[in-house]
Structures are given as C-alpha cells and as structure tokens.
Amino acid sequence: AQLVESGGGLVKPGGSLRLSCSGSQLSSNNVYMTWVRQAPGKGLEWVGRIRGGADGGTTDYAAPVKGRFSISRDKSTDTFYLEMNGLKVDDTAVYFCTAEVNDWSTYYFDHWGQGTRVTVSS
Amino acid sequence: DIQMTQSPFPLSAFIGDTVTITCRSSQYIGYHLNWFQQKEGEAPKLLIFRASSVQSGVPGRFRGRGSGTDFTLTISSLQPEDSATYYCQQSFVTPRTFGQGTKVEVK
Known about the structure:
The structure holds two protein chains of two kinds.
Chain A: E1 4-6, E2 9-11, E3 17-22, E4 31-38, E5 44-51, E6 59-61, E7 69-74, E8 79-84, E9 93-103, E10 106-112, E11 116-120
Chain B: E1 4-7, E2 11-13, E3 19-25, E4 33-38, E5 45-49, E6 53-54, E7 62-67, E8 70-75, E9 84-90, E10 97-98, E11 102-106
Parallel strand pairs in B: 2-11
Antiparallel strand pairs in B: 1-3, 3-8, 4-5, 4-9, 5-6, 7-8, 9-10, 9-11
C-alpha cells in the first residue's frame, strides 16, 4: 500500500489545518493508521492513531496534542485525516502517516507516506 | 510514558566495520521493540520488528537483539548506503515512543 499525505502548509499560531492520508488500510481490523511528526532537526514523535476495521474508529492521542488534534477516517475512500486546531509554533514539523500493523500481537509501522510539512509561524 | 534512550549519539565508522547501537527502555517492554532507518529527507524505513525479526528486503547485515529493557542493533560490514539516522521504538504501550536517534556516518 502506498500512503500519500497532503494538506500541509503555512499557518499562523492559533490557526487550523487538516492533513489527509490516502491509500490507507482502514478496512483491516489489524491496522492502526497513525500520524508521526518530526520537528526540524529533531527525532520522531508519535502524534495519534485511529483503528481500522468495521468496528474500529477508536482513537488515541499524545498528550501534547490531546484536545487540539482530532483523527478521523473515511472508509469509503481509504483516507484518514488529522484535524489540527489551536496550532502552536511547536507543532511545526513534517507529518508522516504510517500504518501500524498487528502481526500476532506484535505491532510495527511497516508503511510510511513521504510526509507533509506544517509550518506554524506569524 | 516509556522513555527510550539510545547510545551512542552520534557514531562514525569506516566501510566494512561492524557497529552496534544500544537502546534502553525506562520500563519492561518484552520483545516489543522496532528499529527504523531514516535517510536525510526521507520517511523512516522499518528494519527490525519484534526486537530481532528482519523486515523483508532488509540486508542480512542488520541484526537486532535483546528483550526486557535492553536492545541492540548491529550493522555488520558497514556500507556507504548505511549512512543514516537509526531510531528504536517501543510498541508495548501507548503512547508509542521513539529513541532520540543515532546518526551513523560512514567514512
């Protein structure tokens, strides 16, 4: 599966942005579609995820973004989204979407998108 | 949250050398440890999952070991294309957490 992100750009502090990731595997019960970000010159940071499958849709978030970011999905188009509100300068990063697969109760990110850049600046 | 600590940071070695990167978790994570390689300007690439299982297509010179809280990634016969930053990541609990990364320079 090829994952493709879109929606990045420049936004002012306090603003909003919605990222999209197409080519996801939302039909699978054994997948969590996940957002991971990387601030300039920094390491990887897990942002949040949404569970795939017919009974999925549950979400989890990292503490720094909880209450500001929201992950949703559209199973009909195999697309999932990251809605970012109340953006802060510290949210500036490249945002990657990735598929975390459940392989006999072992979880790992085996497919990644190319990333989309979000810059929060006045 | 589980903290992941890698060493050394950074690392420089010659073509053909064997290098080892260490990753330590702040809590027990069993075998739930993955390793990624990230080259400049690219997305991370999965190398090792479940501490020691090599992802399909990854060269056999990459080996992962460990369990509990202490893990290693060993790269044998270092090649120029191995110049990259390597991250460990725990998948034992949420939030998933990564090590700070180890930049490997191949001279």
